[in-house]
Write a structure and sequence with these properties.
Distance between the termini: 71 Å
Strand content: 15-25%
Shape: globular
Number of strands: 14
Order of helices and strands: HHHEEHHEHHEEEHHHHHEHEEEEHEHHEE
Radius of gyration: 31 Å
Helix content: 25-40%
Number of helices: 16
Length: about 550
């Protein structure tokens, strides 16, 4: 305004200049005063005078020249989730960016078995790619390297492969290629790998073999219901139509049909025409393996997670089993289902008690110490057994003829099926790599995506192949074997694991390790590729973890678990 107006102040021409002056004044005041000399606000002085503890001020992004602080506290959050005060900070040093856990790292929380999978359905492929690469490169633990991957007996829910070469050969199968892949699978024909140097897009053998590796068998099958995973799936199943939930006659028919399919699978396993299969209930998962796999010369069954009630019921039925992870921790007692007489149990308890307090007699103070009675010792042991329920340590191993007793136990176990909720009346899910009575052929979902990623010289093409569904061990090995040939020995992968099945990678104790030649001869008709069979017959080495990241460079694997 060029003319003069009474009462008008020129200092109000530019409000941003006034704000800058105020911020500058606040900065200069903060610089002159040290942290201990700054005046406390009136409410804080009153609280300090009363001797009450103070919570730290929330960091504000726009205060006094400070950098961007953390987001403001949610007023609806629980009070026990509030951040610790400065005086309560633990002595553990904060994790730096190099120590931050990746998206595939395991959790030590108590109820991690029931948590959701790390990658929800809506996760963008580009975000999935960047996250997996970051977690692989930032970990301090060096990756393991070999020309072959270790056997991973967990079930994967999603795989994401990335490569500098396109995956166009994995899309839009011709009718003849799809039919050929299905025929090869049903006839258990060995997949033919493409010759070196041939364009993967023009390789009919590669496309048929990829189609063959995506097939799996399922029972029961209801297209409108997600039948895997079953643990923690109530939210995904809620609102779905389930006509059997309130119909006992229909539930009986479903269970009878399921028992026939379960028995068929076990018979195929016993005759070594099926390598392995999974039984997925709403509470636990069971992995049945044929003799010769995982370094065992007898049929084995791993069951996880379990509860004390299930284990006691198995003992009552006379099923002998062991707790491999508890035995590793120092408890050398085998949890046997054979019934012991009351006198034998009493003798064992007395013997344990005498051994526990023998050191008191050596010190000469046995009369001054009050020994706990047998009831207290029993309650303490029961508390320990309950504490490991629903944890990986509760995994149960059943071997040999006891697996058939486990079969009968499961078919007659009323708690195998949920009595209420979205899964009420629904039999467990049976997953198998080969066909069995009452099974339905299913296909894993595969799609390839081309994304742009930032590089030093600009943007470059990054190709990805995503596979979702219940990816069993044989499928993971078959796909990586095909990618080894199609991507010229160079690709990386992020693997999303169904966490309750990660514990299946433990090394179960074996009485006798079968010979490699014998395994190939006896399991020659089980439907697996010879190289896949060779991998799955090896003794597991991953322990309670599972493969999270895999990278191949110059035909050499690197992986993290």
């Amino acid at each position: 305004m060029a003319f003069s107006v009474p009462g008008y102040s020129p200092s109000f021409k530019k409000p941003p200049e006034t704000l800058r002056l105020r911020r500058k004044r606040v900065r200069s005041l903060g610089a002159d005063l040290s942290a201990g000399e700054r005046p406390e606000p009136e409410p804080r002085r009153a609280v300090l005078a009363a001797g009450l503890p103070l919570r730290p001020f929330p960091a504000a992004a726009g205060r006094g020249g400070g950098g961007p602080g953390p987001a403001g506290r949610n007023p609806f959050a629980r009070l026990d989730n509030r951040p610790q005060a400065a005086a309560e900070t633990p002595d553990v040093p904060p994790r730096g960016p190099q120590q931050a856990p990746g998206p595939f790292s395991d959790s030590d929380q108590e109820n991690d078995l029931l948590r959701e999978e790390q990658f929800p359905e809506g996760t963008a492929v580009t975000e999935f790619t960047q996250t997996s690469h970051r977690s692989f490169s930032e970990s301090d633990t060096p990756p393991s390297e070999s020309t072959e991957l270790p056997a991973d007996w967990s079930i994967k829910t999603r795989l994401l492969f990335t490569s500098s070469q396109p995956f166009t050969w994995a899309d839009h199968f011709k009718a003849q290629e799809e039919a050929q892949g299905i025929a090869q699978h049903c006839r258990a024909a060995e997949a033919a790998l493409p010759p070196s140097g041939q364009d993967p897009k023009l390789s009919t053998e590669l496309r048929c073999a990829f189609q063959q590796s995506l097939i799996y068998w399922l029972h029961p099958a209801f297209p409108w219901l997600p039948l895997f995973p079953r643990i923690g799936a109530d939210r995904k199943m809620s609102g779905k139509t389930s006509p059997w939930s309130n119909d006992e006659a229909l539930q009986h028919i479903l269970m009878s049909d399921w028992s026939v399919s379960f028995t068929s699978l076990y018979n195929l396993l016993k005759t070594k025409l099926c390598p392995y299969f999974y039984v997925c209930t709403y509470q636990f998962t069971i992995l049945f393996r044929a003799a010769g796999l995982a370094g065992n010369d007898v049929i084995t069954a791993l069951m996880s997670p379990t509860t004390r009630g299930v284990r006691e019921a198995m003992k009552t039925e006379g099923i002998e089993f062991s707790l491999p992870l508890i035995k590793e921790n120092g408890d050398e007692k085998k949890a046997s289902g054979t019934s012991l007489g009351h006198g034998e149990e009493q003798a064992i308890s007395d013997e344990d008690e005498e051994e526990s307090f023998s050191w008191l007699e050596e010190m000469g103070v046995q009369d001054k110490i009050k020994k706990p009675d047998i009831l207290s010792i029993k309650l303490r042991k029961e508390k320990h057994e309950v504490q490991m329920d629903h944890r990986p340590e509760s995994v149960v191993l059943v071997k040999g003829a006891n697996t058939f007793m486990l079969l009968n136990f499961l078919m007659n176990c009323k708690s195998l099926i949920a009595a209420s909720g979205p899964q009420a009346g629904l039999p467990p899910t049976l997953l198998s790599p080969i066909a069995f009575r009452g099974a339905t052929m299913q296909m894993l979902k595969a799609r390839s995506v081309n994304v742009k990623t930032q590089a030093v010289s600009g943007y470059k093409d990054q190709f990805s192949l995503e596979i979702s569904g219940p990816v069993m061990p044989h499928a993971l090995h078959a796909v990586t074997m095909l990618l080894r040939a199609s991507q010229s020995g160079s690709f990386s992968a992020g693997l999303c694991t169904h966490e309750p099945t990660a514990v299946f990678n433990i090394c179960p104790p074996a009485d006798k390790v079968p010979e490699k030649g014998t395994v190939h001869k006896e399991l020659a008709h089980c439907g697996l590729h010879p190289k896949t069979l060779d991998q799955l017959s090896q003794t597991p080495t991953l322990g309670k973890s599972a493969l999270r990241n895999v990278e191949m460079s110059d035909y050499t694997y690197s992986w993290r678990s």
